[in-house]
Amino acid sequence: MPKNTHKIAIAGAATLGAAALAFSVVPADAQTTTTDAVSTAQVAYSSQPVQDVKTSVTDQLATTSVKVDAIEAKKKAAAAAAAKEKAVAAKAVAAKTAAAKKKAAAEAAAKRKAAASRKAQEAANRSAKRAAIKKAVVRHYADNLDGWIKHSLDIMKSKGIPGSYHGLHKNIMRESSGNPKAINDWDINAINGIPSKGLLQVIPPTFTAYHVSGTSWNIYDPIANITAAANYAADKYGSIDNVNSAY
Fold this sequence. Notes:
It is built from 8 helices and no strands.
C-alpha cells in the first residue's frame, strides 16, 4: 500500500474512534442528533479521501509507464539510428574498397599493355636493326664471270652445296669458254632435241630437276645455270670439283 494511503487510513480510523467516544458521553436525550452527526461525519471521511488516493496512485503508475515506454522508444530509435549509420559506413567502405580494386586492376592492365607495347617496339627495333645489318652486308657482284662464280658460291654455301671457285671456273672454261649464251647443237643431246646450254652446258631436264630455289628459271641465267650444274655434280660426283670432263 502506498505511504499516503496508509496515512489516510490511519486518520480515518482515529476519527471513527473519536466519534465513538463522543457518542458514549453525550446525554440520552441528544442521542439521535449526535448519532446523525456522527453518521454524517463518518460518511464524509470514510470513502472520498481513499478514492482520491487510489486515483493519484493510478495516475502516477500510468505516468511512470508512459515514461518507461518513452525511454524504451528512445533506446530503440537510437539503436536503429546507430545500425543505419553503421550500414551506411559499411557501404561506404565497400564502395571505397571496390573503387580501389578497380583502380588497381586498371593500373595493372595499363602496365601490362605498356610492357607489351615496349616488348613489341623492342622486337620491331631488333628486326629493323637486323634488317639494317643484313642490308649492310649484302654483297654486290660484278656482272662478269668472276662475279657470277662468286655469287653462285654464296648461294651454294647457303644451300649446303659443295664446290670451289677453282672447280667451277675450270669446268666453265672447258664447257663454254665463259659464254652464258653458249649452246651445243651437235652432240647426242642436240640430236635428241635437248641441247646443252649456258656456262656449264646443262640440258633442260637436268636444269629443271636440279634448279636451286632463289635463282632464275632461265637456263641461260649465269647464276641459275652454275648453281643448278653444281647441285647436279654434287649429287652425281660429290662435288663440281670432282668433274674433269664432260658430265
